[in-house]
Amino acid sequence: MSVLVTGGAGYIGSHVVRLLLERGDDVVVVDSLASGDRSRIGDVPLATIDLAGDAAVAALRAVLTEHEVTAVVHLAALKQAGQSVEQPARYYRENIGGLANVFAAIDGSDVDRFVFSSSAAVYGNPDSFPVTEEMPTRPINPYGETKLAGEWLVASAGRALGINTASLRYFNVAGAGWPELGDSVPMNLLTLAIDAVHRGEQPRVFGHDFDTPDGTGVRDYVHVLDLADAHIAALDYLQRADERSTVLNVGTGTGASVLDVLTQLSESSGRELSPLLMDRRPGDPGAVIADVSRMSEKLGWRARRGLEDMVGSAWQASEQARQGAQP
Ligand SMILES: NC(=O)c1ccc[n+]([C@@H]2O[C@H](COP(=O)([O-])OP(=O)(O)OC[C@H]3O[C@@H](n4cnc5c(N)ncnc54)[C@H](O)[C@@H]3O)[C@@H](O)[C@H]2O)c1
Fold first, then answer.
1. Are residues 163 and 228 both part of a single domain?
2. Which pTM was predicted?
């Protein structure tokens, strides 16, 4: 019996893989290596498959049989919201087409549990916070749409195939559980700010007149190791769950502002920062904070790590990556 992690060679997936191994589970990874890296998973069995490709179903079926897979954690996806606006068909093909292929392969297999990487992007710009799972889902870009449609497919396929499923709506993921597993692509506030510091530039702050304590945007940052641990808790929950499908917010239930993050970055890096204050970006909400009571009530899970750990570990990982990249 083993756990299949799709996208396991990526940022979040490699943390999930490591925690599964630490508790003694057998793990197999499927990844196209489009953005993932083999070195993140050591000698864990890897099948290099493009899940959105024509040959995916047969190739994945062979993996499920060979490794006697009974549980799947599906993280493989494209994740750049801005890019999804430019290339919506590509995002639907990869994120929804790939997911449909995974369920086509699972049909008739021994898989009985399925955890899906969803996102707070399904909420779009929520009217108020904390954001509960019951609040309206109104994604504002194709990426968020594919996560919402993905949740629907997961629930429907779970019912049809007799599989217990959970969709985890991640809030803002940050940090590194191990220095070699940092988020290497500068795409969110923290990774962009770290990148700016390394290039000798000042981080930019979009919006400083929100209705928040310091005027800058507030988000719910969750440590990637806590998030990985939430996948393990979800797999265990699905084994005992008396419901076929569930959606769960994964955050801390507390917010940090852009300036809080940058102040922490200044402390963690030992660099003085003078952030550049810019106008708001259209559509950006002031504060988005998760209601995390469902995770704690159903799974007995809550995040344990705070901003200092997230920012400090992300900085350390970026330093290590830079040293590794030097000739
Ligand atoms: N990082 C975040 O802040 C965040 C927030 C919310 C949700 N998510 C979701 O979490 C998941 C993992 O994100 P991540 O940050 O680790 O990204 P990542 O890019 O580091 O990892 C994604 C992995 O999936 C693989 N992959 C992509 N397309 C594939 C395909 N067609 N077939 C097989 N493998 C494929 C990539 O090679 C990569 O290893 C994604 O589903 C993403 O949408 C991430």
1. yes
2. 0.98
